[in-house]
Amino acid sequence: MAREASHAGSWYSDNASELAEELDRWLMACSLPKLSNARAVIAPHAGYRYSGRCAAFAFANIDPKNISRVFLLGPSHHYFTRKCALSKTLIYKTPLGDLPIDTEVYEELRATKKFEDMDLDVDEAEHSMEMHLPYLARIFKGWPVKIVPILVGALTSESEAVYGRLLAKYLDDSSNFFSVSSDFCHWGSRFNYTYHEKKRGAIYKSIEALDQSGMSIIESGNPEAFRDYLQEFDNTICGRHPIGVFLHMQKNCSTTLQIKFLQYEQSSHCRSLRDSSVSYASAVVTAEC
Prior knowledge:
Blueprint: E1 2-3, H1 16-30, E2 38-43, H2 48-59, E3 69-75, E4 84-87, E5 91-92, E6 99-100, H3 103-111, E7 115-118, H4 120-125, H5 133-139, E8 146-152, H6 157-171, E9 176-181, E10 186-187, H7 203-220, H8 223-233, H9 240-252, E11 257-266, E12 277-287
């Protein structure tokens, strides 16, 4: 059984040559070197016309040479669960080639009894991991790679720590890579979030200051500080739980890692309560050489 590229043709092009050309153009425009010590990225997951360019600043860092497995951590937008969920399929399709799921790792994860399985309709309705797949398929073209998709539910702080401890050992293996999916502030009445710190000036400047504060805390690698920040400001970061899990992984693994944000963008500049925007940020996580 395969998961279809259900958002191709709407959220991004379903034409392989057109899509490859677009991704190559964005990757080249970043002018970033491939890093042999890159171990993870945080990247957005909106339609490519909104966040594709920003996402390139994360994926451009990947050197496919020594990576054999990519873990995907994506939030659940439509399906409610207090756990993390695994796909029932064996392959994730993309217009740029299919990505096989690592069934051995899936068996290890299922054996912990901490994961549930998601039905195919839940799997295909969710876009958070799918939007990373074309970039991964493009970068790993010609390189054998398997994926480990993990849908991250509405976890408590305690559950984030549990999953972080469970997955930390995979972060210590340099042949593994993690692709963490998150957009940042969703601002506007349609998102029920209109926080505005007036001393920052225009609304969009307040949003940027709020996001940059969260990004700095994520860069510190402190999951408790990130939890406190979210409790204080309730910033509508949709991948808060995948990021929380990753921060706990970093805290519990033996490798010294550094998170660095490289690009930040907003879908539009909000100036009044009638406006709305979504923020996008891309980061790379590197291991100390």
